[in-house]
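Request:
Um, any thoughts?
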Amino acid sequence: MTVRPKRVVILGSTGSIGINTLKVIERFPEKFKVVGLSAFNNFKLLAEQTRQFHPLCVAVNHGGTDYLRRQLGGVKIFDARTEISAMVKRRDVDIVVLAIRGSAALEPFLDAVRAGKTVAPANKEALVIAGHILMPAAKKHQARIIPVDSEQSAIFQCLEGRNREELKKIYLTASGGPLRKIAKSQFDRLTIKDILKHPRWKMGKKITVDSATLMNKGLEVIEAKWLFNVAIKRIEVLIHPEAVIHSMIEFKDGSIIAQLGVTDMRLPIQYALTYPRRFDPGLKEMDFLKLQKLTFAKPDLDKFPALKLAYAVGQKGGSAPCVLNAANEEAVDAFLNGRIRFSQIFKIVEKVVGKHKHIEEPSLTEIQSTENWAREEAQRFILN
């Protein structure tokens, strides 16, 4: 019997996750059909991807619409700012790979789960700010969420087929980022280029800065709370510089199950796309004889206070994670544009979180207004 290819939409196809997703699809052309691609500004690469993978529709920022119309024929073009939902809700879509950065992913994520799609999020912010809305919607509409981030994918794989009631603890591993061996007193002497040199992963600028502050790991803690329905206090971060163990789970009887693999994002991406089956990814195999050691350490919360703040915000829940994320996005952007020093990122986020008037169960409208408030407050602190 011939199995129909899985039909895929990739939101953010020109970023690192999107590019690697297309590499996986290219390796298995008989298993996948690209239905839609989206990009915001990199419309030239989007045009190249469209010529190669022949999607039925693409979405791009308004500035790239005319270019794509000149370059492409027979492809429906959407506005990436306002019409993404039309792509994810198409009847001929099975999987939505969510590789859009930041809170902009929330609306298409919600549209995808309400349409009953399988969602493969590489974006953690949507669940951080609205997990209390997204997860019930996914359950109601029988949508499946298979995370693409290596740590969350590892936890998903470790839990697959297990009794969730027997779960005791989740261990989220972290490489430690580019500043693990650098004294806190030296942080503001580093250049933006120095901060962006991640020791293990090649990622976008924003997520690399978040890795340097460990805010990225803090956001993952909150994300894991929603993905796996686990209390924040049962999620522990471990610094694991070798990045061989991508995360672990511990059961009530003390048994620990870990997911290991080479450091390549194509592995969790492929698992999300081919689930529940596994295929040869064509990557180098793990060579255990070359592993000299696997080391672990507690994160230094004095050196990286963003992680401590994220834990507190995750415990509080409600509208607090939305404020944390929005303020952090503004502060990181200001740092990348040379407007503030590295050490000011956390200070600005902490101030904004401290000023927020908490909402226990925010609606989607309240999340949006809270986000706007947090961004405006962050900008005030940045200017001052």
Summary: The first strand starts at residue 6 and ends at 11.
